Amino acid sequence: MPPAQKMVPALLARLRQAHPDARYELHWSTPFELLVATILAAQCTDERVNRVTATLFQKYQGPRAFAEAHTAALEEDLKPTGFYKQKAKSVQGMSRGLLESFRGEVPRTVDELVTLPGVARKTANVVLNTAFNLPSGIIVDTHVARVSQRMGLTKREKPEEIEQELMRLVPQDQWTFFGPATVLHGRYTCTARKPKCDACPLNDLCPKTGV
Ligand code: SF4
Question: Tell me, what's the pLDDT at 121?
């Protein structure tokens, strides 16, 4: 068994100890809201997105409200999340796509979700893993990519290729846990600039590639 594969059971056990209830930190109350929040979270902190969506989801309720919103007003509402023109376009395009092709309901497959404007594989996995508890794949954001490379689980750079390698290593019934737990590990311990190796529960398992 290759070393990375041997390490996975211990890695999962340690992650579970550190983050027993690992969840994404975006606030949402419907799959549609999670889809919007995930689009807004690109290049923005979850904390800031949560501040924006606290009022946004009261103002616009459901895909029709977003689809029919005045674009300039929506852009203004999304401004604090950055890249607001592109995000407003994506959120409106996604909402229209949902209404036109899926009767306003968030579909439950990656293949259907990625037909929507602004929805890439990572966003689709976040929604399916989190809102529907479906192990559609493993979300690979910047944190998961960095931790996986440092842990020696992958040498790949492209998120899709990293995901494929992780899907081969991690049992499918752990995918919906592994994604959010690794995001939290990357956000608070295996941080980009100064990883906290001394305090890391994975220290003895980790080859610390590139650190
Ligand atoms: S030991 Fe260091 S490099 Fe390895 S996962 Fe922990 S914080 Fe990251």
Answer: 94
